[in-house]
Design goal:
GO molecular function: ADP binding
CATH architecture of the largest domain: Alpha-Beta Horseshoe
Number of helices: 23
Domain Disease resistance N-terminal: 10-102
Structural class: alpha/beta
Domain NB-ARC: 140-313
Protein name: Putative disease resistance RPP13-like protein 1
CATH class of the largest domain: Alpha Beta
Strand content: 5-15%
Pfam family, one: NB-ARC
Radius of gyration: 29 Å
Helix content: 40-55%
Mean pLDDT: 77
CATH topology of the largest domain: Leucine-rich repeat, LRR (right-handed beta-alpha superhelix)
Shape: globular
């Protein structure tokens, strides 16, 4: 698992993994089957044992002794080369199962075991703005959401808005940015555009020069002075509405972003920067005004993408025998476009059902580095982890692949192993929580899909719902099936300032089970609520809070909730009057708010009229004990 090495402090933990791999049956059988010299493995193991014997002492001294640190740096490279060899052996072992014509001589040359290991590290190819749209599936809604942000002139007082596209490696962030960048509406909206592939090295000079060259294609410059480049870039952007895409950003230093963006300040209001990253901390450092979390492809879109790459004519109907196997293979790709395309391309030349079945039962989707380009991304994610996080993440290899685990459980295990560094003002539990959140932020951990958690109990909070682009994605949470859930909190980001009817469809798709007792909805930006909010079938809801739903023009029909005891409503800027719609069904024999004991309104800036219920106002709020109204949100 841990395929990239950085700090010397991780070498000791990684060496054990390497020892285990050398002694594995898979590797030993491969050497025997390929008639390779098993003594090479023994020599490698002896060398690593010698390193391990002195490693602990070296790690302690590397901070204060430069020669020791230099030795550890070289050792890092050597151990990485050894690990690269083992990866290649594992890859060839898998291929042997599928290809009976495997050539032993070719494998010896590939692995370089006789002559030594060369520098074979795979490097991520730079990206460009060009994209073949016909080969893309399932990103239309994501594309339109980003374009809406780009074409919006609501900048919250800022000349430049940064839009972050965030997601794990292989999810399609670059592809989405390419689609948006090449859209005709976007091209017409901006005066100048620039695309820069940043990757792991945030080189201010190279990035500035790339942007300048893009906005002045007829006069590329060779000046080597950063100040001169920034002055020229500021001149070229002056008064122009521009779009800059910074693809694959890893740097989280705000000072670097501040220096890079200095020339941008001369641009016209409404200028935009798109940044793609797999780390939410990068988006924060770049002061992103909007963050679009990219999710996995749906089952249908995954299959559509697979057929484009696996079948020469793109039509699976002509290959009915392979459809069932293909769908199972696609399911194992977990909705990752890059994985789907890689496996599809592999199967394109294999239309024999036995070959597809063999691949379905193999581990080809786990092919390392040079075959998939997914693991190079994960390797970079791992490389940038602080040493304590590396230990914690490496330790998680004890869990089986695709295992679902509880955060609290993992933190306790880290604590028991001594991986958590003590802090003067934090408990060990708080340190573990911080570590865990850091790994989640880097997309190294993924939250389990809610749809599979049918027995979820207690409280559940779902935030950042503005990142849910499709009601279908919301439906996948299967909220109606969670009969044991007692409290549900649904929240959008307060920074979202646009009205969207799609939010109503998303909220409608998140309808919970009627056993729910407490419901809170925050910063909802739809004009009205779906029918389930306030429906009398929710007979157990006793506590309801609606806050900062400022675009709603009316309140939902809450009067028919038979068990509602506490109701708090605030921040409904669009509500001018409250009337019959608030009380519920006029034909019902149930008097509205029959169980309500506490009612509060706050921050209702435009509310001027409250119409009574029916002819007799005394029939309303019969057991109310407290009523609060304030100008500030409650």
């Amino acid at each position: 698992m841990a395929e990239a090495l950085v700090g010397g402090s991780f070498l000791s933990a990684f060496l054990q993994v390497l020892f285990d791999r050398i002694a594995s049956r898979e590797v030993i059988d491969f050497f025997r089957g390929a008639k390779l010299d098993g003594g090479l493995l023994e020599k490698l193991e002896i060398t690593l044992l010698s390193v391990s014997a002195v490693l602990e002492d070296a790690e302690e001294k590397e901070v204060t002794m430069a020669p020791v640190k230099a030795w550890l740096d070289k050792m890092k490279d050597a151990v990485y080369d050894a690990e690269q060899i083992m990866d290649e052996i594992a890859t060839e072992a898998l291929r042997c199962k599928l290809d009976a014509e495997f050539q032993t001589s070719a494998s010896k040359d590939l692995m370089g075991l006789k002559e030594g290991v060369g520098g074979k590290q795979s490097e991520k190819l730079p990206t460009t703005s060009l994209v073949e749209e016909s080969g893309i599936c399932g990103r239309d809604e994501n594309k339109e959401a980003i374009i809406d942000l780009l074409l919006s002139d609501d900048t919250n007082g800022k000349k430049i808005s940064v839009i972050a596209v965030v997601g794990m490696g292989g999810i399609g962030k670059t592809t989405l940015a390419q689609l948006v960048y090449n859209d005709e509406r976007v091209r017409e909206h901006f005066d100048v555009e620039a695309w820069v592939c940043v990757s792991e090295e945030f080189d201010l000079f190279k990035i500035t020069k790339s942007i300048l060259d893009a906005v002045t294609p007829s006069a590329p410059c060779d000046n080597k002075d950063l100040n001169w480049l920034q002055v020229k870039l500021r001149e070229k952007l002056a008064g122009k509405k521009f779009l800059v895409v910074l693809d694959d950003v890893w740097n989280k230093k705000y000072a670097d972003w501040e220096l890079l963006s200095n020339p941008f300040e001369s641009g016209a209001p409404g200028s935009k920067v798109i940044v793609t990253t797999r780390d939410n901390d990068v988006a924060s450092a770049m002061r992103a005004s909007a963050s679009h979390q990219l999710k996995e492809l749906s089952e249908a879109d995954s299959w559509s993408l697979f057929t484009k790459h696996a079948f020469h004519d793109g039509n699976s109907v002509l290959h009915l025998r392979l459809q069932e196997l293909g769908r199972q293979i696609v399911e194992k790709c977990k909705g990752l476009p890059l994985a789907i395309k890689t496996i599809g391309a592999l199967l394109r030349s294999k239309l024999d059902i036995e070959e597809w079945d063999r691949i379905l039962r193999s581990e080809l989707w786990d092919l390392p580095v040079d075959e998939t380009n997914i693991l190079p991304a994960l390797r970079l994610s791992y490389k940038y982890l602080p040493p304590p996080l590396k230990h914690c993440f490496a330790y998680c290899s004890i869990f089986p692949k695709d295992c679902t685990f509880r955060k609290e459980q993992v933190i306790l295990l880290w604590m028991a192993e001594g991986f958590l560094q003590q802090s003067n003002n934090k408990t060990m539990g708080e340190v573990g929580e911080e570590y865990f959140c850091a790994l989640v932020s880097r997309s190294l951990f993924q939250q389990s899909k809610l749809g599979k958690l049918a027995n979820l109990r207690g409280s559940l909070e779902i935030s950042e719902l503005q990142n849910v682009a499709s009601p279908r994605d919301a439906s996948n949470a299967s909220m109606k099936d969670k009969r044991h859930l007692k409290k549900l909190v649904l929240g959008w980001n307060a920074a979202v300032t646009t009205i969207s009817e799609s939010k109503k469809s998303v909220l409608d798709s998140l309808q919970p089970h009627t056993n729910l007792e407490i419901l809170e909805i925050w910063h909802y930006s739809g004009k009205s609520f779906p029918d389930w909010v306030g429906h009398h079938s929710f007979s157990n809801i006793a506590n309801l809070r609606l806050s900062a739903c400022k675009y709603c023009c009316s309140l939902p029909p809450l009067g028919q909730l038979p068990s509602l005891q506490k109701l708090s409503i605030s921040g409904f800027d669009g509500v001018v009057a409250v009337g019959s719609e608030f009380y519920g069904n006029d034909s019902s024999s149930i008097k509205p708010f029959g169980a309500l004991k506490f009612l509060s309104f706050g921050g209702m800036l435009n509310w001027v009229k409250w119409f009574p219920f029916g002819e007799n106002e005394g029939e309303l709020f019969l057991i109310l004990q407290a009523f609060i109204y304030g100008s500030a949100p409650c």
